[in-house]
Every structure is written in C-alpha cells, then in structure tokens.
Amino acid sequence: MLRFVQSFRLGNSLTAPELSVVAAEIYRHCFAELAASEEKQRMNGAEQSLKLLQSFDAQKSNQSEWIAPTADDVWIFGYGSLVWKADFPYIDRRRGFVRGYKRRFYQHSIDHRGIPEKPGRVVTLLPGDIDADRVYGVAYRIAAMQKSQVLDHLDYREKNGYDRVNLEFHEYPTATIPIQVIMYMASQANDSYAGDVWQVQSIARQIFTSAGPSGPNREYLFNLSIAMRQLFPDAVDEHLTELVDCVQRHIEHDEPTLLERALSAEITSILNECLGCDPTQQHVEIAQRLEALRGCFERPGWREMYLQRELQLESS
C-alpha cells in the first residue's frame, strides 16, 4: 500500500478535482476488486454449502449415535432459516408442507439479520386458503430425551416475536399420514411485526441494506430461495421469487455505484485529513489509514452500512 501511495504527488496545493482523481485511482487499484470479489465469493459459497441439501434423504439424522424413536418425541417444522440451519440435535427429518398459510417477509429482525436501529426482514406465516395455500419446509424429529433442551433453545432463538403453534405437516413429494408438528410463528400483534408496509420494493431495499449478528439479510433471503429450489423444485412461492429478483437487481445495478461513491468519499476524506500532516509523513499516514479502511471489509455488515448511508444521502 505504501509503495502505491508514494507513486502520487501529494501536497496542500492539490485542488478538489485533483483530489477526486487521486481518490478514484486509489479506489480502482485497492478497493474495487476486493469489494466485488467478496460478494461474489459469498454468493458462490452459499450455493456450494447448501448443495449438502441434495443429500437430504440420505442424511436423516445429525446424531453420531442412533437414538430409537418413541411416542414422546416431538416434531419441529421450520420454514425459514431452520430449513438450512438446524442448530439442534434431531433424529429424523422430512420434507413437506403445512396447509392454509402463506410465507411472507413481514417480520422485523433486530437480533439476527438486523439490529434495533436498522431492522432486517425475516419470514413469518399469514393465514391463507386451506385448500390453495401451502408453505414448504422441513420437519425435524426431536428425541424425547432431548426435547426440553431443544425447545428451550428454539424459544430463545425465536424470542423476537415468535410463539409456538401446533398443526399438521404433510410430507413431500409422497403424501403420508399427517404429522403433528410444532411451528414458530410471529403474529401480527408482536412488537416486531412489520406487515406489508412499503410493499415488495421497499422490503427488498430493507433486505439489501440490512445485516445483523447472524449475517447479511440478503444471505437469509438467498439461502431460503436456494433451499426451496433444491428441496421443492416444483413448488411456487411468488413472494419469495419476487423479493430475490428485486434484491438481485439492487446488487447488480445499484451496489457497484453506491459502494464506489461511498468508499471514494471515505478515501477523499482520508486524503484531506492527511494532507494537513507533516509533509514527510503524509504518504505513510495515508497508507496506514487506507489499510485500516480495507480492514473494515472483514467486519460483518460493512457493506450494508455504506449502502444505507449512500441511499440516505440520495434521498436527503
């Protein structure tokens, strides 16, 4: 970094347009490829990791030792992140659906895919037509001896507005006798319920610019889409598909420009501040500050922070 910075002639006499040219060159050389490749690697990694779902039927249990099923076992139905992220012990799992509900990104997430001051969006279920509407997901069988531990874990994991609901689960693709399952659903009465305010375009923008302790909100959306496509290739979820398409358009058409503008502004600010330093130390100081800026790429949510900031500047 220092050698590259030393290739520029710097000084207090630089005009604002000249600084902008230097900042643009620094962005192209040090940041553009890094910003683009990090997102591409993340997307490819998600597709690769979720290919494990292709062996779904061959890996019924995640237990190292066999545990015999009993009448006291319980089944948990997951229709969101539980589809691909079952972080609890189970002795069996089945693909299938529940009738009479619609899956919607109508719940704010302030503890997983967003933060209190910038919530993300995750799914809940809305009542629908018992004959026409289905929500596809995965049912996990929890051994009686592990039931209390798993339910306590899930109660905490789903604490942001979700309550337990009991209903019937139908296997896919071959129908069997329905299974009684427990499902976590966020009702419209909970404090984090967002509903369809703003409609799909605004929900997509919220997902595009949100991240939380569990990672980027877009990752949640894309993982769910990949899982549905792999596990239920003939199922139709128009709401999910529309959101994926909309967020993908933001990533392809808006994100490169927004990130370049945001990071170029940061670089220009660094140049302005460092040009007031001791002339003999300017290059060193700039190089150190630019390395620190590159280091922010390793922090979760950096991308969404800059995107949100730029979009706010656009609308102000």
Task: Give a description of the structure.
The structure is a single chain. The protein has 316 residues and is an alpha+beta fold. The protein has 9 helices and 9 strands. The chain has helices at residues 2-5, 16-30, 32-49, 147-157, 199-208, 217-231, 238-274, 282-295, 302-315, and strands at 74-78, 92-99, 101-109, 120-127, 134-142, 162-171, 179-186, 211-212, 215-216. The strands form 3 sheets. A 5-stranded mixed β-barrel has the order 1-5-2-6-7. The chain has a two-stranded antiparallel ribbon with strand order 3-4. A two-stranded antiparallel ribbon has the order 8-9. A hairpin with a 7-residue loop joins β6 (162-171) and β7 (179-186). α2 crosses α7 and α7 (238-274) packs antiparallel against α8 (282-295). The longest helix is centred in the last third of the chain and has 37 residues, at 238-274.
